[in-house]
Amino acid sequence: MAFIAGPTTPSAFICHSTLDKPFVLRLCEELKKKQIRVWLDEEQILVGHDFVERMEEGITASDFTAVVVSPRFVAHGLWAKEEYRTAVTRQVAAKRVVLLPVLLEACEILQLLNSKKYADFTGSYDWPVGFHVGLDLNKFWKLEEHKLGETTFTHFADGTAHKNRMQGNDFVTSLMYTHGITCFSCHDVHGTSNNADLLKPANVMCRECHVPNSPNGPRAATIEQHTHHKPGSSSNECVGCHMPKIEQTIADVNVRSHTFKFISPDATETLKIPNSCNSCHVDKTTQLGERRAQIVARVLTVAGGTIAVCDCSTTATPPSDVRHDRGV
Prior knowledge:
It contains 13 helices and seven strands. The chain is α/β, with parallel strands linked by helices. It folds into two domains: 129 residues, 3-Layer(aba) Sandwich (Rossmann fold); 118 residues, no CATH class. Strands 2-1-3-4-5 form a five-stranded parallel beta sheet, with helices on both faces. A two-stranded antiparallel ribbon has the order 6-7. The longest helix is centred in the first third of the chain and has 17 residues.
């Protein structure tokens, strides 16, 4: 992937420790919003590339080198320090400002940067640096305030988180939380053989409280009537609809939402948030939800027919003996 800075577009090489990657990714995202091109190692150094050669090319091609300074950078950033030295050489040769210090956390400032004004990001990162059990978390970290209707770095427009390690923030907005459910109600911090360190397999956990005709829901006679999917299918599992994998962690790896809300295809159309249906049905459009709603509206008028389970086809006309009941 070539990196070419435009004649009027500022560009920046991001010099950092890999241990500070979460902050760096966020910094890059914000810089791109400001129309600033960024050179980031994971985007520009591909399999087979020579590290030193690509690094030098990146620093030379960029207008500036932003140096993200932290205790991790000072103690462990071997490659980052090599980048820093290359940028220093370029600044001396160019006889102009090239190095832009970005202070992520208070630490020993590198000598050449010590007399320079730096961008202070202390307290602006996504994890509570310095916090340990027994201290007041509010003094170390606060979640950015989110305004409904806006998609931000941390949230979708409806308030659902879309980044990794945000499940707790999702959870405290859920109905489950208001009823006294805690993280430990489902997960074991010491680990289990189940996915996500659950105390039991997901469907077993959910159905300890949620059984057909239960006050907790679903209020349908069977699980299949509630989900409209075949028994044994992944779409017949509670987490398939109520905990879709829509929150990004690394690259294309996603984790499950913890609001426990069913997110309809309509929400994708209006709020640009991934929905539960298309998380599985990637070959279908969001119009699937509208078609299914039309079908359900028609079949609800059919009285006394055999209840059949939806096979997720996009057929516009359902069998005459099919009755759907969402049961919620």
